[in-house]
């Protein structure tokens, strides 16, 4: 491997490809290819000695800098991918007519489902267990509401019964949120959101938070239809 080649260069000192080939029983063409990668990575130096290319390993501290650079690049790629993934998933579903499923756990589940919902191009339709929201994520839900308000992402919410619907409504982005209560909706320990071709489910129970994003046009259409029926029955 390239790392083993670097370790060899540390022990040999400056060396030509011809000598490396003899020591490693490796073809020169393969060595030039691997050495080229190591030079590009900045951990091996190439120079001419009596018109013959030689190679020598740089200080091993260069490996630390290389690792840090690659970690930074990976984080940048991941950040870009997080923004692109919802659209890419939707396009995949449209093109291939196959459902897409993303799965998260813990705080990441809450963060990722919230970020995804902010990409909605239509009013979000949501079922919410009021007790679970108030017990486990009260502050997070309020801050997420402020982000929705800032981006102008509207939402209709059907929640489980509770005595202070007006107070709940007042603290959850009232400018972009309509909330109704369904009398016979049982506690279910979750938030279900429907928008575009997406259904997201955030399970919130004691010591557990699990998030699932499902992209499937037909399934989401069915649940939107059910939501519209329940919305007509729910009380403001």
Summarize the structure in words.
There is one protein chain. The protein is α+β, with helices and mostly antiparallel strands. The protein contains nine helices and ten strands. It has helices at 2-12, 17-24, 28-41, 61-96, 106-117, 130-136, 138-151, 165-170, 217-233, and strands at 15-16, 44-49, 52-57, 100-105, 124-128, 155-159, 177-181, 190-195, 198-205, 208-215. Strands 4-10-9-8-5-6-7 form a seven-stranded mixed beta sheet, with helices on both faces.
Strands, count: 10
How big a fraction of the residues is strand? 15-25%
The helix/strand series, from N terminus to C terminus, equals HEHHEEHEHEHHEHEEEEH
Mean pLDDT: 83
User: Which stretches are poorly predicted, pLDDT < 50 over at least 5 residues?
Assistant: none
State the secondary-structure class.
Answer: alpha+beta
Query: How helix-rich are the residues, as a percent range?
Result: 40-55%
* Count of separate DSSP helical elements: 9
């Amino acid at each position: 491997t390239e790392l083993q080649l670097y370790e060899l260069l540390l022990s040999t000192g400056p060396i030509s490809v011809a000598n490396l080939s003899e020591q490693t029983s490796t073809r020169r063409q393969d060595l030039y290819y691997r050495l080229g990668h190591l030079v590009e990575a900045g951990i091996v130096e190439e120079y001419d000695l009596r018109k013959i290319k030689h190679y020598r390993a740089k200080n091993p501290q260069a490996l630390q800098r290389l690792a840090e650079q690659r970690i930074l690049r990976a984080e940048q790629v991941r950040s870009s991918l997080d923004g692109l993934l919802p659209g890419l998933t939707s396009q995949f579903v449209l093109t291939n007519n196959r459902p897409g499923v993303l799965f998260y756990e813990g705080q990441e589940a809450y963060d990722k489902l919230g970020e995804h919902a902010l990409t909605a191009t239509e009013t979000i339709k949501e079922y919410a267990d009021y007790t679970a929201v108030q017990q486990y994520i009260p502050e997070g839900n309020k801050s997420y509401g402020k982000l929705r308000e800032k981006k102008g992402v509207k939402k209709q919410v059907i929640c489980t019964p509770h005595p202070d619907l007006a107070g709940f409504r007042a603290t959850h982005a009232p400018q972009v949120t309509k909330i109704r209560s369904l009398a016979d909706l049982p506690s279910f320990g979750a938030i279900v959101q429907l928008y575009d071709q997406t259904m997201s489910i955030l399970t919130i129970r004691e010591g557990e938070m699990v998030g699932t994003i499902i992209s499937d046009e037909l399934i989401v259409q069915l649940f939107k239809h059910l939501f519209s029926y329940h919305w007509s029955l729910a009380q403001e």
